[in-house]
Amino acid sequence: MISNAIEIYPSASRVGSCYTLLMQSETDWTQWAESLQNLKLDGLVAWLLDAGAPLTVLGAQLIYLTQPFFGGKNSMTIAHMLEEDKEAQAFAEFLRAERAA
Q1: For the range 33-37, what are the long-range contacts, defined as Cβ-Cβ under 8 Å and sequence gap of 24 or more?
Q2: Per-residue pLDDT for the chain (101 aa), expressed as one digit of tens each?
C-alpha cells in the first residue's frame, strides 16, 4: 500500500527535477532548431527523426560511446532525446512548427 502511495504522490524533488528537465529541453530545442535552420538542415533532421525512428536508440548509443572523444555540452541531452521515442517525435514536430512559423 505504501509503494502505491509513492507512485501516486511523487516527491516534490522528483516533480521539480522533471520540470527542470522539461524546461531545459525546451531551451535546448530552441537552440538546436535555430542552429539547424541556419544550416538549412531542419527539414532533413525532422524527416530523419520520423523515418529513422527505429534507429534513434542506436544513434543515442553511438553518441554515448563517442562522447568521451567528441564531447560537446549537448551530446548527452541529444542522446537522451534520441533514446526517448516520444521526445524524438516531439522534437521533429517542434522543428516542423518552427519551419512553418
Answers
A1: 33/94, 33/95, 33/98, 36/95, 37/98, 37/99
A2: 444 444 444 434 334 444 444 555 778 899 999 999 999 999 999 999 999 988 999 999 999 999 988 878 788 889 999 999 999 999 999 999 988 87
Distance from C-alpha of 43 to C-alpha of 90, rounded to nearest angstrom: 14
Distance between CA 60 and CA 31 in Å, rounded? 19
Spatial contact of 29 and 91, defined as CB atoms under 8 Å apart: yes
pTM: 0.71
Burial of 82 (0-12, 13-18, 19+ CB in 10 A): buried
